[in-house]
Design a protein that fits this description.
This protein has 59 residues and is mostly helical. 73% of the residues lie in helices and 0% in strands. The termini are far apart. 15% of the residues are buried.
Length: 59
Amino acid sequence: MKLISRFEAATRSTVELYGLRKEAFLAFSVAPRRSQEGREALASMRNIERELASRKHAP
C-alpha cells in the first residue's frame, strides 16, 4: 500500500477514508515486522485518523 499523506486524506470523502483505513490496517497486519511497508501503512492509518478526527470537530 502506498502512503496516504494528510493532504491526500483531506481530498477524500469520509466514506473513502473509512475504506482506506481498513486497507491500511490490513496492509499493516500482514507486513513483516519493522518493514517499510508496515511503517507506511501505520503512517497512513495515523494520517487518515487525524483527518477523520478533524472532520468531527468541523461545523
